[in-house]
Amino acid sequence: MLAPVEICSDGRLELSDAVKLALVDHCGAIIIDAPPVNALSAAVRRGIFESVRAANADTAVRAIVIACAGRTFIAGADITEFGKPPQPPALNEVITAIESSSKPVIAAIHGTALGGGIELTLGCHFRVAVKDAKLGLPEVKLGLLPGAGGTQRLSRAVGPEFGVKMIVTGEPIGAPEALDHGLIDEIVEGPAADGAIAFAKKVVAEQRPLRLLRNDDSKLVAAKADRSLFTAAAAAATRKNRGMNAPLACAEAVSWTLDTPFDEALKKEREAFLKLVADDQSKAQRHAFFAEREAVKVRDVPDGVKPRPVGRVAIIGAGTMGGGIAMSFANSGIPVTLIETGEEQLTRGLGMMQKNWDATAARGGIPADEPTKRMALIDGKVGIENVGDADLVIEAVFETMAIKKEVFTAIDAHARPGAVLATNTSYLDINEIAAVTSRPQDVLGMHFFSPANIMKLCEVVRAKQTASDALLTATMLAKRIRKTPVVVGVCHGFVGNRMLAVRGLQGEALLKSGALPEQVDAVLTRFGFSMGPFAMGDLAGLDIGWRSRQDRGIRWDIADAICEAGRLGQKTSKGYYRYEPGSRAPIPDPEVEQLIDGTCKRLGLTRRAIGDQEILERMIYPMINEGARILEEKIAARPGDIDVIWLHGYGWPIHRGGPMFYADLVGLKTIVERLEFYARSLNEPALRPTALLARLAGEGASFASLNTATNPG
Ligand code: T1G
């Protein structure tokens, strides 16, 4: 039973802080005000439900408008409520109440109307939006499907072919496209509520019929007559789902619009939704959503500390990384001074950026005039003395300590006081780099991932003397350029590359044990990685790791033998695989098997058949163990941060949540047992479980219990 509500004396219904009802021009204006994104919490649902009922009972009200305060219309169900006992009214009940209204109900859309927010508008008679609004059903990105009628109503608005694409991809569309496809009735001048009230007055004056999508199958006729129209669209949308359950469930649910009565289909949708909510894949994707937002919150920074203002960034090095980083800043409208040692290198770097942006514009990824606008933000200069007007300097030069120290000595001499000085090093000791400057408090790491203009991850490395405001500056700026910053501490390889090296070592060990590159890669692609580690090595170039191992006096027998045979990967048309001219498709190469066999014979090793499960465990569990060691050393603050690093920097499959989330799913006790087994049977003491992992397993605890820690360093 819902709590009774009082109509306020001035015609306003104060239901709760979240929802208010005001009377404007004979319109019942329901205003939702539930920061930060007007998510459909129980209080919001209750407020809307009661407001619709009250507005229908009030004879002064001729039409109803549903609008939101703040930066966006409803951005979906309140994800924090999932997995908890449901509280009434359910969203489906709220939508049914809207559909039962005897008065026209108009949704006023602005910002990013998503998920349950869009589903609520689909129960309205009309939908209007401001021009820059975005509308989407991203439930699939949380491992779900629209659970409040979206799979059945959307296709009745836009047609099943476009409806299945929107729901399976989860990608939002702009208001103009929404108007074209019939998802909205009009684009209004802002504010959305005012535009909607003006629209409502037209509806009343013209006595427009109140169309309910649930009763309108007119957009289904073509696909009902020729189902291949739908199946082709569904196949195209689900093609790359790589072992994920939600995309297929979404496509199946939308198909019910073609052959199942509406109310029966709603029931099936609800069952399918509840099944996905309970699925580990959705739990992994919801974990990833919140872990990413936790990771960017810089903790244990003294109150009142603010980021330093950044108006211009200087980037030293116009190579692949420096150019990509420069593009990331220019993409967000931040001016860049791009510095090289000579005109030729600078011209080459600028040319690469121009080519990149032109290609994106040619694909329609950005407006045609954007490449020119963005190039205009890049000021190419020769000589480090040009860093003087930058508030942040990022060094992206050759990955050797000697060169980094030389560059930072020069930066220190020319950068303005208070500028933040960042190195893009992937591995090196930032404390050592900071020590050559007179301002170690301004020095930190910003480790971008190649291609830097695409990859979201940025490891923000806090050195021993890094000042809190410098750390905040780098983290907030990374977020501003739409990266996912994660604060980490100083060690060789920080978090991601340190765990990658552990996995690489296990890959080498598995080849010695008896596996082949193609078998190992197949196990990891079946796990959900888009590419296996050996194919990835061929793509990146095997000489990078080879040189790094030589610098540190480390030998990997098989990996080094491959490189010594001139097999450096795709760049030499052969590495762990061979490649046909002009093709990137990895082809298993008997020469590699012979090289592995020969190396093992020379080492006196007997190879054996290796099962897929052993490969999976030996590739993943040691990484998890290293992640636990990283937590012990406080190089990462939370297991969730490690998950975010692997999800956004190394292609860990989103439906597996990240290495530490996956460890909790497998069970830490199992992982400890398997690591101890391999440490014994392979005589590999390094595989023994680290103290933290052993303790948590012994206590029956999980890594998730540690996700409230403070930042590292
Ligand atoms: N529920 C709860 N909290 C949410 C939320 C949500 N749906 N969306 C965002 N937040 C929090 C977020 O955790 C952060 O909190 C703050 O809002 C700002 O978010 C029935 C079942 C809307 C594009 O998947 O895509 O509807 O860290 O940092 O970058 O069929 O948030 O500040 O404490 O991301 O400006 C479907 C998810 C849900 C949308 C804004 N909806 N959200 O991006 O801010 S399932 C979604 C987003 C559903 C129905 C189904 C983005 C955004 P804190 P932010 P932003």
Give a structural overview.
It catalyses: a (3S)-3-hydroxyacyl-CoA + NAD(+) = a 3-oxoacyl-CoA + NADH + H(+). Residues 493-579, 615-700 form the 3-hydroxyacyl-CoA dehydrogenase C-terminal domain. The protein is globular and about 90 Å long. It has an eight-stranded mixed sheet, sandwiched between helices. Strands 1-2-3-4-5-7-10 form a seven-stranded mixed sheet, sandwiched between helices. It is built from 29 helices and 20 strands. The chain has 713 residues and is of the alpha/beta class. The chain folds into four domains: 8-276, 2-enoyl-CoA Hydratase, Chain A, domain 1 (Alpha-Beta Complex); 313-488, Rossmann fold; 529-603, Orthogonal Bundle (N-(1-d-carboxylethyl)-l-norvaline Dehydrogenase, domain 2); 612-705, N-(1-d-carboxylethyl)-l-norvaline Dehydrogenase, domain 2 (Orthogonal Bundle). Residues 1-11 have low confidence and may be disordered.
